[in-house]
Design goal:
Membrane topology: Multi-pass membrane protein
Distance between the termini: 53 Å
Shape: globular
Number of strands: 0
Radius of gyration: 22 Å
Strand content: under 5%
Low-confidence stretches: 1-6
Largest sheet: none
GO cellular component, one term: plasma membrane
Protein name: Ion channel protein
Mean pLDDT: 88
Subcellular location: Membrane
Number of helices: 17
GO molecular function, one term: chloride transmembrane transporter activity
Helix content: 55-70%
Amino acid sequence: MAQDSTQQAPTTRPATPARALLPFILPAAVVGVVSSLVFVGVSAAAERLQQVLWGPLPDALGIGRYSVLWMFVMLIATGVAVGLVVWKAPGHAGPDPATMGLNAPVMPPLVLPGLVLATGLMLAGGPSLGPENPIIAVNIALAAWLGGRFLPRMPGSLWPVLAESATIGALFGTPVAAALVISEALAGRPIRGLLWDNLFAPLTAAACGSMTTALVAHPTFDLHLPPIGHPHGRDLLAALVIASAAALLGMCAVYAFPYVHTAFGRLRHPMLMLPAGGVVLGALAALGGHLTLFKGLSEIGELARDPEGWSAGQFATMTVVKLAALLVAASCGFRGGRIFPAVFVGTALGLCSHALVPAVHPALGVATGVLGMLLAITRQGWVSLFTAAVLVASPAILALLCIASLPAWLLVTGRPQMQLHKDGTPIR
């Protein structure tokens, strides 16, 4: 009997032959290594400057390193210094950071020195932003410029993808994060060939970037919290509540973002906007303490070393202050990303839940707090799950995180994001 014409055999995407993928290995590897070295170099220089500004310098002046006076002085001075760079540097240190996400536009090379300088000063001076957005933008511009000059036959669209993947791999110390981000970006787009064919070059760049960082800088995200063990029903309930609460708290900052950005924008000049942001950040630091300064990665390690060392009220204060500091720093013009400070906010919120209800395991509180906060701030589901999981390094928590992500995602999806269009309206 003839086969019905309406019943066709299922179609399959043809796989890309190996000879078509081999030419991408060397360019991806080079981009991975260079992107990692740029990230490590900027981070190391900023850390050296931070050690001087927050150590020998206040000691020589007879001022406490983290006294209220010094925090005000440093944050205002950082605002002035970054404001000068944004005002006078060619290209004004790139576009408004409130309009930028992980997928940065390709900028001309002339802009990069100012952007690197502004990022380094920000990281050393104390504002609550991380290096991810500007470093990705720098690496994308370098890859597109150098790749176009030395390998003009390669497709121009390849270089931004390689640089973004490489930098994410370098930032997190593993190519898994980059693979998740790229696969999420490919979702819903028409792609040629198999998914792994499309991931081959970005994953190569990410692997080389992460290995370079691991060999040079030895990064770690594990907070060394006690493992959770076999989960129980109360753990599931706690995961659902904490992740949802973190997502709601993060959405408060997201909804406030365009209004705070507009308020600073009325000052109209970087030499007014950034120092004014420094004043507000100084007041927040005086309220929340020195742990609410900087990008937050070292600071969450200090919190995790002694989860019982602060009261629920202190954890709550640090949570709210750090989220407000992230909101202000991202609104007034400091060049930086929002992932790392959001991790601090989620960590402090999770430890606050443990302090309020001791039956909540600290690892569970931290992981689900970070999960909900990152879902709200980044709208990157895989990165949120991945980051929450690697912080506690407990396999038993993965199922709880996946379940907790569902109500948290329903609270954030379809709503404004913490990124603006050029006209100041939020991206949805």
